[in-house]
Amino acid sequence: MLVLILAYLGGVLTILSPCILPVLPFVFARSDRPFMRNGLPMLVGMAITFAAVATLAALGGGWAVHANQYGRIIALVVLAFLGLTLLSTHLAEWITRPFVALGNRLSQRSAGDGDSIWSAAGLGVATGLLWAPCAGPILGLLLTGAALNGASVQTTLLLLTYAGGAATSLGLALLIGGKVFALMKRSLGAGEWVRRVLGVMVLAGVACIALGLDTGLLTRVSLASTGGIEQKLINAVRPAPAPEPVLKAGDPLPVEGQMPSLAGATQWINSPPLTTESLRGKVVLVDFWTYSCINCIRSLPYVRGWADKYKDHGLVVIGVHAPEFAFEKDPANVTKAVKDLGVDYPVALDNDYAIWQGFHNEYWPAHYFIDAQGQIRHHHFGEGGYQESEDVIRQLLTAAGQKDLPDGYVSDDHHGVEATASNDPIRSPETYVGYTRAQNFVGGKVTRDDDADYHAPSTFAADQWSLDGHWNVHGESAQLENAGGSIVYRFRGRDLHLVLGPGSDGKPIRFRVTIDGKAPGADHGMDTDADGNGTVSAQRLYQLVRQANGSGERLFQITFLDPGVQAYAFTFG
Description:
Elements: H1 2-13, H2 24-28, H3 35-59, H4 62-87, H5 89-107, H6 117-131, H7 137-149, H8 153-188, H9 191-210, H10 217-220, H11 227-237, E1 257-258, E2 267-269, E3 283-289, H12 294-310, E4 315-321, H13 331-340, E5 347-349, H14 354-358, E6 366-370, E7 375-381, H15 386-399, E8 431-432, E9 451-454, E10 465-473, E11 478-480, E12 486-492, E13 495-501, E14 509-515, E15 533-536, E16 540-546, E17 553-560, E18 566-572
Parallel strand pairs: 3-4, 4-5
Antiparallel strand pairs: 1-7, 2-5, 3-6, 6-7, 8-18, 9-10, 10-11, 10-12, 11-18, 12-17, 13-16, 13-18, 14-15, 14-17
Helix pairs in contact: 1-8, 1-11, 3-6, 3-7, 3-8, 4-5, 4-6, 4-9, 7-8
């Protein structure tokens, strides 16, 4: 119920969002007509259309995005016609003649005055297609949850509730606007003047939307942004994750709750399915990870070490693989990664995020320590804290009656991509290539889900990056369409990693890396040679740079000699 209320309030606040401004003239344009026959059908059509488009967007299919783009074009044409009819009564009669005829056939009655419920609902459908891209934090939360949970009645109900909230606020604006416009007509006798002003406003709104201002400039520059209000509502109903407890020698470990079920796993690797009941009497370490996550990879040597060191003393380590990218849901990809990374303990594939949600987890990696009675006694998020974590394991094993535990700590002498990060406090942030979470891109306007030519600028500031060549940018990745394309990034850090994958045909893709315009030499990574050459042969994280001396700011460029590569995200160490 709290989530439903949150969704409704988020929809109500949408009318204050800057990207809804171009839609308001379409609402006010019918404010002088009976609400039940015009305003209400328009708002219902708009709400249903928005919920349908948003549901398709949540499914993440590129075809849905294209369908929405085509729908927006049709909507712009329809609403441009509306604007023209408001400007000229003669033009209105000529343009609306076929629509009036269609309305007559649909409603089986006269609609010659354009006051048909069907025509109002049709305009609502068009308005809904234009309104769909307006997304604040609350709608973003709903769509994220829909993407995690998949299509369901609950997903559609939440989106309809959000749409209902927005329709409520727009309906109030329509009713109030109707009274305002009626007063203007009575006092000034300026009905035709008001009509023409509305026509200009409608056409201006169409122009704003056609130029992308509704989802571009107006979403970033606002005098009435509701993002802060919406974020406060989210924080009010979704408590922040519990902070990691500070352990002191000799202090008892608190009980943080019971271990959630593992039944949501879609598949198990290295083990038959495990249950909380079968694990009773064992000390359990649950490690949430995903195989292209550099932070997870750097913590894996410790997790593997604990599993080997204490497996004969009552410890069971379970890796819960919760994918970040779509290719990490492929069991074959995960099975290969588990083998390549030397993971021999049980791994649960959590493709539906059921275990993730059961633990209320929000991090990769995340470690949960569970005692022999099935109670969570400690947790740790992210890298680091390895000695403290091993102390917790030893404490729980001792409490379970284990004796003669091995001494010392698991070695921290790790090499290659598993080596500890440089801890440079100003190293570049994780950077996504897909448009959904991309930041600091300087290669011009991104064309979503369609081929386009990109040109990297001649200069870059720190942490800025660009595409160069013919690319197709999707929500979570960018795909190179022609050979010779590049990605350029001015980064700071000892290590540079990039998650890459071959095209749909699976053929290897050759690439060449340069640093400051030269071959990397001693600064090459595990997946390149001194000349900067390498090959993308699988969907995984590639270490492309490891600076031999320090972690200073450098200009990185990777050029692909073959087409088809898919680039996902940069991480740094």
